[in-house]
Amino acid sequence: MRKILVIGIGAGDPDQLTLQAVKALRSTDVFFILDKGEVKSDLVQLRRDMLDAHIQEGTYRLVEARDPERDRAAGGAAYSPAVGDWRSARAEIYERLITDELGEDECGAFLVWGDPALYDSTLGILEEILERGAVAFSYDVVPGISSVSALVAKHRTGLNRVARPVQITTGRRLAEGFPEDVDDVVVMLDAHQTFRRYADQDIDIYWGAYIGTPDEILASGPIAEAAPRIELLRAEARERKGWIMDTYLLRRHPRD
User: Where are the beta strands (DSSP E) in the chain?
Assistant: First the structure.
């Protein structure tokens, strides 16, 4: 039976590959990579560099396909259906790759940024393909170092404080209000710099973009002071590269 590995490859630094991930890479016959276009071609190159560093040339095949576009203008009630349509389009591509490019007794792998269990669609897509029943395969997951772990490590801090919870959410959810009964909040997938809404509160921000790559940018401090600096850094980086991936931790000071 065909086998699929979903391998977490860290936030971008090749040194963040775990020993388990390296072992998984070396047991793979075919690597599937989705190309996001010329603007994000360096993401494909980072994957290639990881393979070159850990696998002997000629021992594997690399198959690329174009990633489907997602309707990023969809908001409100249209957001979830738009994401669902995009995931289904991806599922069709993955299914074709597995069926056409992977032999019955071969092992294929998807290389996932960070950790496959945190804000990534690969596992859900594979389950969708299995439910369709057109192709059979087994799959295993290799955890990776997430951008969240890399972020707090770079800022030399922890995710939570003693006896206090931490919450991981999205910019879309943060726009609805700061989570109740949580003072440490990690925010991902925020294209609108929602942290600016909380500049009048006693909250520190630990921000990072392109974490683990040569383009890494870090900034921290009280939101009121750090927000203008982050906005400028973010705008300059996006202009330079054409895209940006950033994550941040908001830490609210204890309230009396």
Answer: 2-8, 30-35, 61-66, 107-112, 137-142, 166-170, 184-188, 203-209, 217-222, 246-252
- Distance between CA 25 and CA 22 in Å, rounded? 5
Q: Which residue has the higher pLDDT, 227 or 49?
A: 227
Domain of 112, CATH number, reads 3.40.1010.10
Q: What pLDDT score does 74 carry?
A: 67
Contact criterion met (CB below 8 Å) for 110 and 91: no
Of 142, 146, 196, give the one whose Cα is nearest residue 168: 146
Same domain? For 33 and 156 the reply is no
Domain extent at residue 209: 148-252
Closest among 8, 45, 16 to 211, alpha carbons compared = 16
Do 182 and 139 share a structural domain?
Answer: no
DSSP bridge partners of 107: 3
- Look up residue 246 and give its amino acid: D
Please indicate, yes or no, whether residues 25 and 138 belong to a single structural domain of this protein: yes
With a cut of 70, say whether residue 198 has pLDDT above it. yes
Residue range 75-126, pLDDT digits in tens:
677 777 777 888 889 999 999 999 999 999 999 999 999 999 999 999 999 9
